[in-house]
Amino acid sequence: MTEPLKNHCATLRSDIFTQGLLAEWLDIKGPQISLKLPFAAKTEAERLIKSDPLLQGYRWDVQVAVESMAHSKGAGQPIAARNVIAVASGKGGVGKSSVCVNLALALSRAGAKVGILDADVYGPSLPTMLGNRDAKLTFTPNRKMLPLQRYGLQVNSLGYLVDAEDATVWRGPMASGALEQLYNDTQWQDLDYLLIDMPPGTGDIQLTLAQKLPLTGAVVVTTPQTVALADAQKGIAMFRKVDVPLLGIIENMSYFQCGECGHQDPVFGQQGGADVARKHSVPLLGQWPLLTELRQSMDDGTPLVYDKPNHSYSDLIMQSAQQMAGNLYEFLGPEPAQE
Ligand SMILES: Nc1ncnc2c1ncn2[C@@H]1O[C@H](COP(=O)(O)OP(=O)(O)OP(=O)(O)O)[C@@H](O)[C@H]1O
Q1: Is the pTM higher than 0.90?
Q2: Atom of ligand 1 nearest to the CA of 253
Q3: Quick one: which residues bind ATP (predicted)?
């Protein structure tokens, strides 16, 4: 029965599991099935299993054991996590930090150990979005920073070290120095994914970061608006130039969705992010509407995907995050085992 069952699981396909649930991830002992996923997609796997009548008679134990991907680079920087992902935008204010926080929380819900490094040193917004602005970092005896724990994530931001207002007037070299220190001197604990909230833009500081950090991949956030799209394309070009694989584009603020009646209004134009994704052969990870509740949740420091997991918007975020993790695995493949 084991082989036919494994073959059946391989037919359970979705956008995230393009080859189904693979035989090597499954361990079947009588009515007990253990499924060990190599990327964060526990929620999607459970959904697939639940939707199949043939699999209901079994006891399922779904675990996530994220593997480090083969592609990992960076000029001499230590690698702080199994996978390091930049969340970037060519233009400011398109919602990059909000997307980064929600993606991180979604990956954590999908079974992974996740951290966020707020590298947006000119305007660190992580402390506000996570509702822990008064939190202060602690240090190890050898002066390493211990990341703060929040909503199941490990996080660090310049905002926990200095006042956000002070950081906004920093000049390039000071900001780059602070960033390198944040990256090198934070003692991250056993992370599957470290998401880096990059400073907006494609200038020197962003290029240096993209070159120096051992990035496994990058996600570009844009709105559908023409000016944002031009900058998003610069972002794509920047990552391609330094050989960082693009895991996808998130089109944020795709349309305004009225919280009362559900009416949709394409405030910033239509499909722009989707068109750029197609033009540059980068996957589109999602189209997230402009929603008052999302903005409110970020201002209140209780991000939607954590605070309201059953909200339809949270489903969108979960889909994008798991798709990103799946793309990372599919595009890059696990690191070969050490001899
Ligand atoms: N989909 C959305 N719906 C409603 N509000 C949103 C959405 N995405 C982001 N926002 C809001 O837009 C504002 C800007 O978002 P955010 O700070 O995430 O952008 P950013 O691109 O990181 O900005 P910066 O360039 O300053 O780093 C915030 O108030 C945020 O709550």
Answers
A1: yes
A2: 1
A3: 90-97
